[in-house]
Amino acid sequence: MNLPRRTFLKQAFSGSALAVAAGAGLLRPGQALAHTWPTWPQAIFHEKKIPVVLHELFGHRPIVQGGLHLHAPLEAENGAVVPMVLDTHVPHPEKLVLIVDKNPFPLVTIVHLSPDALGFFNVRIKMGKTSLVRAYVVTKDRVHTVTRKVKVTIGGCGG
Fold first, then answer.
1. Phi and psi at residue 60, in whole multiples of 5°?
2. Both ends of the chain: CA-CA distance in Å?
3. Are 68 and 150 in contact, with CB atoms under 8 Å apart?
4. What is the pTM of this model?
5. CA atoms within 13 A on the CB side of 69
6. Can you tell me the distance from the alpha carbon of 90 to that of 50, in angstroms, rounded to the nearest whole number?
């Protein structure tokens, strides 16, 4: 590797400065990961009935339309990699949930948010076939939802 002297010196100085800061206790990356989340609901990810999933996740909170944007393609060329973006400006979101109706196991993801987090999440999911995609944002007293149909074409041949 032929690295210019100036670049080498910059990288070496930056690395040593980070090492000194971490050694002095100025950087504490463990604090970012130290938040204790509720236990992971592993059984709910294996549930096939959407009403059961919704009841387990939201209890008796009312579900209202809107308050959330789901950016998803109208047609996904490859069901193995379908980009989704969840975005909300609802105050104090607790978690974001994504459900794909016709997947073998509909619950795709649950994102728990810290109190200061913005309600934004970007993910690529797997979809078996054309289906409704449901996104939810959970607050203390209600659940906001939006639904979008995504057509999945495998190799551009229709689906």
1. -105, 20
2. 48
3. no
4. 0.72
5. 9
6. 24
